[in-house]
Design brief:
Number of helices: 3
Radius of gyration: 16 Å
Strand content: 25-35%
Order of helices and strands: EEEEEHEEEEEHEEHE
Number of domains: 2
Helix content: 10-25%
Distance between the termini: 27 Å
Structural class: mainly beta
Strand order of the largest sheet: 2-3-6-7-5-4
Amino acid sequence: MYYVLKETDDETNAYLKLETPDAIPKQYELLEGVSRLDGWPEDVIFEFSKHRPEGMNLTDYVENSGQWLIISDRFRAVLEEFDVKDIEYLPVKIKNHKGRMASEHYWIANFLVLTEAVDRERSIFDDDPGSEDGIFGFDKLVLREDILKSGQVIFSLKEEPMTFIARQDLLRRIEEEGLTGVEFVEVDKFRTLDF
């Protein structure tokens, strides 16, 4: 069984934004399956958003303005247990609301392969007008049968790269480790559109 990986909806959790908007050149490549490890800037710093002043908890999966998969060392270790292929880990630092360093041990999990996984006949979605085959949002998400059988542990949808799909055994390990800031929604119950 597969699940959509989401950030926990909790206003007390940190919400991150880049300290300097141009700190990551070509940010769009982080949603296109492009390797960024070579030449990755040394000091990519995110900061707790001032628009969520109550967001003080730094979780293992951190909600952020780029909608990237920003994870802690603990989360990365769980992914490495599964020997997940085609992900590179780009180091980032995080400052709190007062500008003090909160952590230097976080990563953007950058998917190097985006998986075309949506069963377009059985899913209900809006097309992304800015992309040839992209999807803007789902009212019903159904994965293709070949994807369900492929056994990938975690992947990013090619059709909607800010949607991360995880296998049930990964969900169990995340729960066993007590990773924070993450929740899972069964694929067939996932929706982003309100009609």
